[in-house]
User: Which sequence fits this backbone?
């Protein structure tokens, strides 16, 4: 529903601004420019989708090898002790922990399509434990907010989009996205725990969160202490090495478990091809709307206004060009993706520009909060979502701020 209003708003506002420019300022070029933008962006959306096919096919195939090889089960066992502490209302060893842990593990690996059915199954299990069937339980809210925070190890789709748009190193955003999603997830966890009065000082929780936080803070301090050129080199090398190491470990684990690696890859690769084709109408729709909005001059006015505002505050405003992604992300995943791709395709910026990289990290920093809440709560007919949206948006804000700051650390020239 939100995307419907956004899409309509883009066209109506753009038309009104163009009308004002024509009548009061004599701008006879604005309407032809808007019309040309519809054709140009429709073509761009189709070309992006086709260019995406190869990269998505590759990574969906790799992910299927990991899934069949047992990586999801390993991750589930690894995080199980933590989840029993942050979901205190769920009885120990309850069957709902199975799909819940699998859902988080698949999201962690970027297997969104496979994660959603398990997420819905988890919500159904949590609904059985819920005494008030119309009101979200504490466990349901914790589960939803952790989902919307979007902790991801391998940002498959973003790397694929960057590759299809000619990025020199599509994986250079791997470490920044991992860091940003961690801060988003941590903010979501702390927020919900404060609402629910969950003790995060428990030794098990502290062992998990303390260790991860210490490692991430140490990494940030290290990157901050070295020259920008070294940050770029180390990030590029380590990102590539880690990702290749993950691929090799997936293959070795699959071989160990007697999985047909090649057939598993082909099975997953077919899904990648189907995903690339299915997104064409959604991508064209939102790209055309954004193209008209920009061609009318409206988006440029907004961005210039924000740059002036941050300039008055003494803040480096180079990140502002990527903010359309941040604005769209809580409302619409396809809208945020299209905003990112529009920045990639814009000759003023490009995929390897600072704005292009910030947009990539923003896209990977959180999930689409309102979409996730609507789908998951709608599936079990929850009417009163309590503070779920508030906590999810706090996690989004933390992820956006972290994405911007980390992008300056890694990419700002």
Assistant:
């Amino acid at each position: 529903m939100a995307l419907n209003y956004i899409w309509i708003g883009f066209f109506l506002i753009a038309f009104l601004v163009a009308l004002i420019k024509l009548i009061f300022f004599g701008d006879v070029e604005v309407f032809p420019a808007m019309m040309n933008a519809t054709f140009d962006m429709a073509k761009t959306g189709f070309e992006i989708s086709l260019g995406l096919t190869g990269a998505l096919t590759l990574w969906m195939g790799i992910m299927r090898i990991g899934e069949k090889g047992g990586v999801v089960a390993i991750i589930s066992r690894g995080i199980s002790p933590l989840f029993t502490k942050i979901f205190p209302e769920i009885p120990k060893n309850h069957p709902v922990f199975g799909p819940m842990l699998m859902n988080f593990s698949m999201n962690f690996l970027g297997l969104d399509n496979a994660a959603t059915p398990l997420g819905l199954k988890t919500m159904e299990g949590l609904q059985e434990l819920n005494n008030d069937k119309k009101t979200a339980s504490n466990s349901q809210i914790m589960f939803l907010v952790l989902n919307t925070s979007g902790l991801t190890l391998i940002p498959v789709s973003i790397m694929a989009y960057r590759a299809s748009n000619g990025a020199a190193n599509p994986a250079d955003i791997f470490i920044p996205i991992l860091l940003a999603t961690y801060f988003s997830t941590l903010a979501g966890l702390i927020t919900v725990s404060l609402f629910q009065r969950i003790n995060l000082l428990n030794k098990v929780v502290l062992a998990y969160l303390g260790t991860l936080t210490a490692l991430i803070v140490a990494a940030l301090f290290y990157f901050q202490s070295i020259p920008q050129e070294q940050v770029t080199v180390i990030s590029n090398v380590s990102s590539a090495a880690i990702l290749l190491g993950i691929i090799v470990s997936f293959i070795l684990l699959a071989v160990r478990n007697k999985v047909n690696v090649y057939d598993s890859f082909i099975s997953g690769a077919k899904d990648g091809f189907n995903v690339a084709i299915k997104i064409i109408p959604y991508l064209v729709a939102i790209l055309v709307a954004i193209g008209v909005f920009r061609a009318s001059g409206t988006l440029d006015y907004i961005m210039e206004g924000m740059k002036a505002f941050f300039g008055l505050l003494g803040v480096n405003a180079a990140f502002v060009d990527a903010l359309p992604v941040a604005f769209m992300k809580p409302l619409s995943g396809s809208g945020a993706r299209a905003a990112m791709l529009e920045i990639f395709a814009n000759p003023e910026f490009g995929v390897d520009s600072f704005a292009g990289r910030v947009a990539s990290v923003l896209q990977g920093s959180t999930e689409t909060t309102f979409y996730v809440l609507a789908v998951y709560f709608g599936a079990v007919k929850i009417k009163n979502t309590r503070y779920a949206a508030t906590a999810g948006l706090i996690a989004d804000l933390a992820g956006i701020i972290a994405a911007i700051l980390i992008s300056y650390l890694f990419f700002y020239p």
